[in-house]
Amino acid sequence: MTLRHSLLAVLTLGPAYGYQLHAEVVERTRRDAPLNVGQVYSTLDRLRRDALIEDAGSTPDNLPLYQLTDAGAIEARMYLTEPDLADWHDMVERVLLAISLPGNHLPTLIANFRTLWAPRRGTSDEVVDPTGGASQAAAQHAARLLQSAALAWLDSLPDIDPWPLRTDRRRRGRRAVDAAHPPA
After folding, report:
1. Sequence-distant (≥ 6) Cβ neighbours of residue 58 within 8 angstroms
2. pLDDT (tens digit, 9 = 90+) per residue, 41-82?
3. What pLDDT shows up at residue 2?
4. Which domains does the chain possess?
5. Rounded to the nearest 5 degrees, what angle is found at the Cα of 132, between the Cα atoms of 129 and 133?
6. 119 and 27 Cβ atoms separated by less than 8 Å
7. What stretches of the chain show up as alpha helix (H) in DSSP?
């Protein structure tokens, strides 16, 4: 999964500020790896430079809001429907993100991932390079099991109702010092 495309996909819900986008991506994709908020802001800068997002004003407390441009909306729609490779981690995060968003993109995305993971007709299970021996056979077996697991996962996805952007302010950093009880 690319952060660039995840941010575009979340912005299909409407304007949002950087830390809000960070939290939405983490919540919707259940990422394996932590996501640095600085990475979100540098990606937003590149998306703005590439004319995929634009400024959308600011929140009441002056946090800058971002929204999709027409080109950004097209790229987000492509990301939510047209995967280009059969990669387990990309598939899981992209499908989880797509499930969380309203729209009719999910059936197309699942169908396209099924096509990418489907066994290829005319391919042989035999070891192509006989000098590869047992390790090559084990690698091919692992690839077949992963392919089978991917198709089974796509077949067993639960029905989840999409949800809007969260509007509650996410807390971050240290708590403000209570003026009545300053630190000693």
Report:
1. 17, 64, 65
2. 999 999 999 999 999 999 999 999 999 999 999 999 999 999
3. 87
4. 3-116+132-155 (1.10.10.10)
5. 110
6. no
7. 3-10, 18-29, 37-49, 70-79, 88-100, 106-117, 133-155
